[in-house]
Amino acid sequence: xxxxxxxxxxxxxxxxxxxxxxxxxxxxxxxxxxxxxxxxxxxxxxxxxxxxxxxxxxxxxxxxxxxxxxxxxxxxxxxxxxxxxxxxxxxxxxxxxxxxxxxxxxxxxxxxxxxxxxxxxxxxxxxxxxxxxxxxxxxxxxxxxxxxxxxxxxxxxxxxxxxxxxxxxxxxxxxxxxxxxxxxxxxxxxxxxxxxxxxxxxxxxxxxxxxxxxxxxxxxxxxxxxxxxxxxxxxxxxxxxxxxxxxxxxxxxxxxxxxxxxxxxxxxxxxxxxxxxxxxxxxxxxxxxxxxxxxxxxxxxxxxxxxxxxxxxxxxxxxxxxxxxxxxxxxxxxx
Length: 335
Ligand SMILES: [Mn+2]
Fold this sequence. Notes:
Diaminopimelate Epimerase, Chain A, domain 1, six-stranded mixed β-sheet, binds manganese (II) ion, 2 domains, inorganic pyrophosphatase (n-terminal core)
């Protein structure tokens, strides 16, 4: 599903409006933070005001992105905006990292996303699952509208590209991605720093937690299903928060013979006990559709979801479904 980018409609919205609101998905990653900060900077350079809200803040691994300190955890009380941008997210109330009022009350809403589960729900929608990253879309938009890309913005956009291509290792690393990366590096982005901060750097405690996660790893279905589960006690034992296990699931997916890998994280949030589950799969196993069965979403090879209720029950229930999933046919990826 290729889509014609609505560059002109978005450009007209930028000209027409003065105050902009930007948000992304809950639990943001580098491809949420990077392009959102680049868009914010581009709007401000055009003389507009732009507010970027992420109720989950910025993950530790993306805090090197210039101006990430400008991200607000909540909008100022009662603030209204002419136009809202929702990036890297389907724009629905449960998925956005923001209260819904600033989006609902905006005179015009723009959705820019590359997740295939997104639907055109706003006034302007650019949904293109063939795009490797939302950063590619913001990059193309800024180039098309001739909005200058500063070195700070280039670093944000390269962070998004790196995040969603596994630093140019996944099969979405197309010539267009590498051309964009080349342009961004020429504008001052630092690919070595991005790779280190996004993928390689780990704190001492998160390395301890990685050890716990790997020591608790299990497999089923002749090694095709690999998982691990971290309880609240595991997190407490090393004194770290949830985000320190980003990328642990990739260690499981990289095991020879593994086709479906999951990490379960026990959480206690405002609704009570819950599990947060990250899924990585072979493309034909459609991690996005598996996550969709539990109310989540994502990409064919990487997805996630949350389940409320007692942690151990959730782990059992999801694993049972996963073993069936390995035996069932799934629709092919249709671009
Ligand atoms: Mn993305």
